[in-house]
Amino acid sequence: MRIRHRAVAVVAAVLFAAAGSLPATAGTGAAHQRERPSAGRLSAEIRYTEYGIPHILAKDYASLGFGEGYAQAADQVCTLADGFVTLRGERARHFGADAKPDGSLSSASTNLTSDLYFRGVREAHTVEKLLAERAPLGPSTQVRDLMRGWAAGYNTWLARHEITDPACRGARWVKPVTSLDVAVRGYAVAVLAGEGRAVDALTTATPPTGGTADRSSEAAPDPRAAARAARELFAQDRADMGSNAVAFSGATTANGRGLLLGNPHYPWQGGRRFWQAQLTVPGELDVAGGSLLGLPITSIGFNSRVAWSHTVATGVPENVYRLDLDPSDPTVYLVDGRRERMTKRTVTVAVKDGPPVTRTQWWTRYGPVLTSLGPQIPLPWTATTAYALNDPNAANLRFADTSLGFAKARSTADVRRSLERHQGLPWVNTVAADSSGHSLFTQSQLLPRVTDGLAARCSTPLGAATYPAAGLAVLDGSRRACALGRDEDAVQAGTFGPSRMPTLEDAPYVENSNDSAWLTNADRPLTGYERIFGTVAMPSSPRTRGAVQDVSALAARGGLTVQDLQRQQFADRVPVADLAAADTARACAALPGGTATASDGTAVKVGEACRVLAAWDRTVGTGSRGALLFDRFWRKLSGSVPQDQLWKVPFSAADPLRTPRTLNTAVPVFATALADAVRELGRAGIGLDEPLGAHQFVVRNGKRVPVPGGTEALGVWNKVDSRWDAPAGGYTEVVTGSSHVQAVGWDGGRCPVARTLLTYSQSSNPNSAHYADQTRLFSRGEWVTFRFCERDIRSSPALRVVRVRG
Known about the structure:
Elements: H1 7-15, E1 33-35, E2 43-49, E3 53-57, H2 61-87, H3 91-95, H4 111-123, H5 126-131, H6 141-160, H7 179-190, H8 199-203, H9 211-214, H10 223-240, E4 243-248, E5 259-267, E6 274-281, E7 285-292, E8 300-302, E9 306-312, E10 319-326, E11 329-335, E12 338-341, E13 343-351, E14 354-363, E15 369-370, E16 385-390, H11 399-408, H12 412-422, E17 428-434, E18 439-442, H13 452-458, H14 461-470, E19 474-476, E20 503-505, E21 509-512, H15 542-557, H16 562-569, H17 575-589, E22 595-597, E23 603-605, H18 607-615, H19 627-638, H20 643-646, E24 647-649, E25 661-663, H21 669-683, E26 697-700, E27 703-706, E28 720-725, E29 730-738, E30 740-745, E31 753-758, H22 773-780, E32 784-785, H23 790-794, E33 800-805
Parallel strand pairs: 1-33, 3-6, 10-19
Antiparallel strand pairs: 2-3, 2-33, 4-5, 4-21, 5-29, 5-30, 6-7, 7-8, 8-9, 9-17, 10-11, 10-16, 11-12, 13-14, 15-16, 17-18, 18-20, 22-23, 24-25, 26-27, 28-29, 30-31, 31-32
Helix pairs in contact: 1-6, 2-6, 6-7, 10-14, 11-12, 17-18, 19-21
């Protein structure tokens, strides 16, 4: 239906000649349903198959983007519109200054700081300058066309439909967008781990005055505390939004062709969700997979020859410069003794129910001045010292072209060529396989060119602690000799070139679960890279250990098929339980009188817990009994005991997959953690041996959907992190975890053998038929057989064809 009560939509309808109409929700069935909006220059055919997956067919890239923007709006209009409010710097105007954004486009803690940052980006014309660069520094013509078409498609959908999603139905902040808005969204994704991490600190940085300047020596950051905080900060990044991916070479498979299993762990709500589609320009492009919302090209996916996935990398995509200030003016800094004045950016944002707010941001040759990096790493601006953030991704609008190169690739070699040409991946690794049997891992992410030698020469006392501990370089900004330089093969100055990237090709398997490149293949460890990329010969996370154990055993067995990938995804093995569950049960049974003392001194009977833990199958399937008890116990124990005290056998770099091991049940907190877990479940009315799915679930349209999987602390491949709400029944909503999962291989035909799963389903609109359908599949450990070839698409019993023009 057309929207006649919203002037903005009427304007969009005029602009895009929306004379026809489409129902907001269409049914499915054996009969092929065709909807025919009015004619125009941009056009696309959207063929929907099972689970609302669109297969978008267009004559050129602009029309392909048009179809994609239209289809994304149909499924995710409210989430997309909320993101565009963020990118326009209008959150405080519509939602209030103190409310908190969803965190999908930056780490801003309030709408006000979010707006100050994104209004600053707009007013500085940051993205327009990047768009003006010639390729490969700037976007290709094809990507520009995709962005232009996406905006037109989104606007056309808005002009022709009533919004049924209660999250934004009737909202005045749902507006048409421009191709610049689409480009700014890509920019925000690129700087998430750099400027996006520091939004609060750079929008509130203020030069010292009066008494503040007199206390400069008291505010110096503590190097040891900062090193510890930096380790925790970057580790938490990978825990919040990590991934698993494995590629098997033809040496391990049943038919000599490659296999890929991608399991990215991303938020289940908000603007960093994936959206599933197939994009086709005949004779030019044919790719399927998941796109991050608002981006006009497949982010993780496959075609008839190649499949790829990404994992959040350990490389630190920013560095900090310490500035020596002119004692007479804290907004002037010295480089080789010469004065340089900071650039002042004054930004004003509108605020709901209040006057506009004006703030000043300060920029240097290195980047913006900031006053902290994470809450535990203070970087105070004093009379003599300030700190500036260098984020090379603030000059990177190349992610879409890199991904488009993947989409067109015919081999893993082509994937590498796209990485080498565009160098546009900001914070992820790439794992890929192809139909010829090749495998690829590469940490080809855009990083500041901080070599270990440069760090040794130019680190401040703070950097001398944070760089070896966490890869965060804090360099002396007062010397030109501490500039980053440039590799000959680098597209962008101040970054590493492709020849410096940790890469492994054609190994029997390559795997990453968000640890460093070192154990990509346990038999062929990668070494020799700079510290900023990650560590070597250091303990891995339980998830990495479990994943490498699993995939190395699969590779050794050989004869692998796509079904083996599917089984791996839902095996739901708990690696930590294999190390600790038996010891826990034995130590529990040995407690005098079957009693343990809780943290408040209360005696708790734990005999039943001992029996439950001994009988537990050590998995986190929805039917697993004992999983919830062990999970709650382990969180309490591992969160209270340092790793070097938790295990009797310490880590050994010579045996990284089997160490550390042997739980130290003698630590005093062991019995306390067990008692607290038993009492916690008892007070919530949760039986110790109740199945996990009864208490780990999401609610969709009033119905519980059990959720399999486990948390980062347990090392589970099928990761889910949920909100614990004992009075409501347990883990009641998934915050982040398995998202766009794909298991892909080839059988010699023209069509890839692909099984996919979008765990949270295609639409966030509770009125959509595709709000929870794939979530129910995820609950049951089932998959979608992806229809890639034309004959399969056209034979779908759910086929619905929408032809859009605008």
